[in-house]
Design a protein that fits this description.
Pfam families: LRR_6, PRY, SPRY. The protein is built from 3 helices and 14 strands. The chain is mostly beta strands and 264 residues long.
Length: 264
């Protein structure tokens, strides 16, 4: 980062836009960038540091540069910051989710602080307009925004889903079932196979599952949804990517026909 900042200090540098999103930049790197922005020779107008770990001091340093009337910087991106952003690979986009008890079907039960769902005999839940009354499904509370990565450990036959929150909740209609409509995308997992489905268009994936853990990565601006198999040593193996344009609020969800799913 110091070498880059030295380059920005050069009178020969005419760079106006610098995008460093998700580059594991810490407060030290932000200090070097702030120093470069003090230079009268800096032409930088836009600096994207989203998904990094600038710390509070780094935020203050860079924000002060932007407010300086002598500094040309007009756009500074510091959103989605935090210590987890300096983790390698997709894990820098890790998100924590909880399952929504108002949506869970009565044949499923929640445990571990609403982070695990498993298939049981009929369970007593109060009536709720958002509850799935036929399909054995549950949604997460949190909406997906920006870039999000999460993992789930499963047993048995389950669907790992991403769905618009407007998906139907009542009755046996395909409008309510994950993967059977244009509002949802799923990875089906069993001990024998993987498959993916969207709008009732199913694709069988090659290879037999070698892990019980699945990773999911959503890049909202890029319009991509990717599924991965996660090995015991945390190696990610790509399974499938859907390309789409997300047009409504959406979230993670799970369907459990037998077995369980636990958010990790």
């Amino acid at each position: 980062m110091k070498l880059l900042s030295d380059g920005l200090n050069s009178s020969h540098c005419k760079l106006e836009i610098l995008r460093l999103s998700g580059c594991m930049i810490t407060v030290e790197g932000c200090s070097s960038l702030a120093s470069a922005l003090r230079s009268n020779s800096s032409h930088l107008k836009e600096l994207d540091l989203t998904y990094n770990h600038p710390g509070e001091s780094g935020v203050k340093l860079l924000s002060a540069r932007r407010e300086d009337p002598l500094c040309l910087l007009s756009k500074l991106g510091l959103e989605h910051r935090g210590e987890n952003r300096i983790r390698a690979g997709l894990k820098k986009y890790s998100c924590d989710f909880t399952l929504d008890p108002n949506t869970v079907n009565r044949e499923l039960t929640l445990s571990y602080g609403n982070r695990k769902v498993e298939c049981v005999k009929s369970h007593s839940y109060p009536d709720h307009p958002e509850r799935f009354d036929y399909w054995p499904q549950v949604l997460c509370r949190e909406s997906l925004t920006g870039r999000c990565y999460w993992e789930a450990e499963r047993s048995g036959r389950v669907y790992i889903a991403v769905t618009y929150k407007s998906i139907g909740r009542k009755g046996v209609s395909e409008d309510c079932g994950f993967g059977l409509n244009e509002k949802s995308w799923i990875l089906f997992c069993s001990d024998d196979s993987y498959s993916v489905c969207h709008n009732n268009n199913k694709t069988e994936l090659s290879g037999r599952p070698s892990s019980k853990r699945v990773g999911v990565y959503v890049d909202c601006p890029a319009g991509s949804l990717s599924f991965y198999s996660v090995s015991d040593d945390q190696t990610l193996t790509h399974l499938h990517t859907f390309s789409t344009t997300f047009t409504e609020p959406f979230c993670a969800g799970f369907s459990v026909w037998n077995g369980s799913v636990c958010l990790k």
